[in-house]
Specification:
globular; 12 strands; binds 2'-monophosphoadenosine-5'-diphosphate; Rossmann fold
Length: 270
């Protein structure tokens, strides 16, 4: 397997640790590298990866939309999410997909008791991660999504994915809709090391509601701590990162790898 992750900057990517672990586990020869590309040089560098016979690459900030446009083919997931995070190169052609929704949904399925049908989710945040999460939730048959974002306009853009099922809640009003929530999701960067804390009063959240966070540095975000202290089931964010990597590895090697506690510990090491 010859693969890597492209981004700018790329220093902090955990992807080499994840794919390196799977290459060891499944006895796959090869190499997975961090590939830093300056935004002006994207096309030239992608051509180079094709010439160098890469099987494919992962895509992170700021290239997920640019690569979408560069691909020869993009699948349904990438089209609906409007971004590509995984490319498979076959016969010199770029096949793009997006595995972020899979990563989010799989993390919830494997690490909680949540059932999606006829349930109500509440998403905080309306960036790229939120779009993938909404796509995943809709595919799983969620009944209703409350969506709240500091910048209302971005929430309105995402509401277009399913106007009947998505209702916008004013950022200043979020506590007032919590009582209807079965799954609360932080899809903002709040709570991440070096960022502000997400300030939310969970009093109205029903006891059965599950709380999850896309932030995994720290693993136990202030939101998750607060929810756990109140007795809620929680799902940490590291699983989304680990699960979204699985379909890439499968595309390049034919093996769908497992997420194990050993891998989780490796990914969480500094
Ligand atoms: P990603 O692709 O990871 O979702 P993004 O597109 O930069 O990243 O989105 C970041 C999210 O965090 C957005 O919902 C952003 O809100 P805005 O759309 O209003 O910018 C949210 N966010 C970041 N900092 C925030 C803050 N201090 N308060 C509230 N929301 C914040």
């Amino acid at each position: 397997m010859k693969a890597g992750v492209i981004g700018y900057p790329i220093k902090h990517s955990k992807s080499p640790v994840i794919h390196g672990h799977w290459m060891d586990t499944y006895n796959i020869d090869g190499d997975y590298q961090k590939i830093e590309i300056e935004p002006d040089n994207l096309n030239r560098n992608i051509k180079k990866l094709i010439q160098e016979k890469y099987n494919g690459f992962n895509v992170t900030i700021p290239f997920k939309e640019d690569i979408f446009k560069l691909c020869d083919y993009v699948d349904e997931h990438a089209k609906k999410i409007g971004a590509v995070n995984t490319v498979h190169i076959k016969d010199g052609q770029l096949y793009g997909t997006n595995t972020d929704a899979f990563g989010f949904i799989q993390n919830i399925k494997e690490n909680s008791t949540f059932q999606f049908e006829n349930k109500c989710a509440f998403i905080l945040g309306a960036g790229g991660a939120s779009r993938a999460i909404i796509y995943g939730l809709l595919n799983e048959g969620i009944e209703k999504i409350y969506l709240s974002n500091r910048t209302r306009k971005r929430a309105e853009e995402l509401q277009a994915m399913s106007p009947d099922k998505i209702e916008i809640v004013e950022w200043g009003d979020k506590e007032n809709s919590l009582y209807k929530t079965d799954l609360l999701i932080n899809a903002t960067s709040l709570g991440m090391v070096g960022q502000n804390v997400l300030s939310i009063d969970l009093t109205a959240l029903p006891d059965h509601a599950i709380v999850t966070d896309i932030v995994y540095t720290p693993l136990m975000t202030p939101l998750l701590k607060q929810a756990q202290d109140k007795g809620h089931e929680i799902v940490t964010g590291i699983g989304m990162l680990l699960h979204q990597a699985r379909p890439s590895f499968e595309a390049w090697t034919g093996i769908m790898p497992d997420v194990t506690s050993e891998l989780e510990a490796l990914a969480l090491e500094k």
